[in-house]
Amino acid sequence: MTQKIVIVGATSSIATHCGRLWAQGKVVDLHLLGRDGDRLERLAIDLRARAAAGSTVQIAVADFLSGQTIQQTVAALAAQSKIDIALIAHGSLGDQAECQNDLAKNQHELEVNGVSPVLYAEAFAQQMSRVNHGTLCVIGSVAGDRGRRSNYVYGAAKGLVTRYVQGLQHRLAGVKGNQVKVVLIKPGPTDTPMTAQFKAKGMKLAPVEDVAAGIVAAVTAGKPVAYVPGKWWLIMMVIRHLPSIVFNKMNI
Amino acid sequence: MASTPGLPFGNGRSYGDACLNPGGVLWATRGLDHLIAFDPQTGVLMCEAGVLLRDIQALVAPLGWLLPVTPGTQMITVGGAIANDVHGKNHHVYGCFGDHVVQLNLLRTDGEEIVCGPDLRADWFAATLGGIGLTGLITQATLQLKKIPGSWLETETIAYSNPHEFFSLADGSEQAWENTVSWIDCVAGSGGRGLFMRGNFIADAGRTAPKAAAKRMPFVPPVSLVNGLTLRPFNEAYFWLNKRKTGRQVTHYQPFFYPLDNLHDWNRMYGPKGFYQYQSVVPRAVGQEAVSAMLTEIGRSGQGSFLAVLKTFGNREPLGMLSFAQPGVTLALDFPNNGAKTLGLFERLDAIVREARGRIYLAKDARMPRDLFEAGYPRLSEFMQYRDPGISSAISRRLID
Description:
The structure holds two protein chains of two kinds.
Chain A: E1 3-8, H1 13-23, E2 28-34, H2 37-50, E3 56-61, H3 67-80, E4 85-88, H4 96-101, H5 103-131, E5 134-139, H6 152-173, E6 180-187, H7 196-200, H8 208-221, E7 225-228, H9 231-241, H10 244-247
Parallel strand pairs in A: 1-2, 1-4, 2-3, 4-5, 5-6, 6-7
Helix pairs in contact in A: 1-2, 1-8, 3-5, 5-6
Chain B: E1 6-9, E2 25-28, E3 35-39, E4 44-48, H1 53-60, E5 65-66, H2 78-83, H3 91-94, E6 101-107, E7 113-116, H4 122-128, E8 137-144, E9 146-147, E10 152-160, H5 163-173, E11 179-184, E12 194-202, E13 215-216, H6 231-243, E14 247-252, H7 253-257, E15 263-264, E16 275-282, H8 287-301, E17 308-313, E18 328-336, H9 340-355, E19 359-360, H10 370-376, H11 380-384, H12 394-399
Parallel strand pairs in B: 1-2, 13-15
Antiparallel strand pairs in B: 3-4, 4-8, 5-9, 6-7, 6-8, 10-12, 10-14, 11-12, 11-17, 16-18, 16-19, 17-18
């Protein structure tokens, strides 16, 4: 059966690779949302070349900050047929020091990485609940597990995503016969254009293909929380439980 | 583009300095990883130049297609395959990678975009094939894939005890076998025993692709694991372990063509000083003599590795002005970097290649002298008209500029 998949922030590197895994050799009905029409079109062409005959790939330039527009956009996507998978993958990694000095920049980062994804999540949850069908996958981050000096603006926004998704999962768990799954992904540092600055400094990053494969597997399994690569579950378990007196001495 | 000379950089798998630009700028092309069109009826694929051969193979193999020519790894970009005009085990049938490029787009640092192919601005095409990235940035390419009956090959391994036997096996296999290659024991001296492998694609017949269990060389050992103490036992073990497997087998295309791709970071086994690869091709008329002479030198030096390949090329001239694969026989060996001792051996090998009127592979080279380069690549002056003045690399400064 043809899967209907919506990807928000589709041209992000992780989302692109998820899209390829979903499309490659299969018949899919893909909807790609992003900011830049040219880049969306380039990705749509790529995915059409990979997908099996009979697939459709459509693009839409979307608003990321207006709650009203987000609600309308998602309602329109869900109007004709039910959505099987929605992936919310957009984000930006602003410079922490800049965000501390320039609060307009700070506000933008919090909105793009925190408020915007949860509004999309709520919009998809509404539509999926209506037909009691679908898997919603939101990309959070290990950075959301504990605030730390090097990136707490990004981390706090991702923390909002974590709590919001928890709430959605709790709400849906209370619905009798619920078939809607919500999956939260917490990627470790991944080799994407967003982290190019860290790569240049020699930081070890997970290959984006591996992270995408982990996400696709978590969506198929309907896993509530997935750290990718899996080792980050253990690392963050330790980080979360370090006493402040130790944690505050660490330069991370 | 920047005003400092830069260099296109794909997946960085060239063994030498063709993909390096110390003190300069690299233009990373891995972001150019989008497909543009694929027609499963005709097998024509158009893609951006940063796409990895691995990703193409994974997409098209289940549909009955493969890239016609790939080297011993699929972890390289399309742009890199063109810029080095790579060859594979089927050279005698399919030639080089460039023989299957229908068209490519070249972006010059002055902003000009040149679309070229075998019948379209063919001079630009010939300069760019094997042009080690010096004619411009390859942005996209159209490739003709080859139809395969399935993803498996019927293979046969035959032990040989000297180069003479190797040549009769190679010649005897040209007609009936699409892929031929051999492992040669570089410790054995001019006697040169080895294992000859050949394979033809067959129908899947219900076989399912093996699950690749990739391993990783987890750290760089303080000294090369391949050294004077281990080389002989390594080769001895390799020969006898594989000799037991002689005869016919059915092998999936991935382990057959890309045996090292499942051992990530394998290069780390050579320790912090790394390794050189020395790959030459010499004409057939003097092939047996030259190969024996090189093996004698290598055997006498006690250097080398168990990664050693001897293979004949088909009787076809490559399209590219600086393409490597000329008719003849090619010998490729890894050598742990032992400084002056290794470089001294290479000078003695150079003398043999020079006398045989052979050439060294630019994709593998990090040290050949300029005169050997010029003698081996007679179309260099023709190539120079197509150089992009905004591009420079370690190898271009060492051999050309």
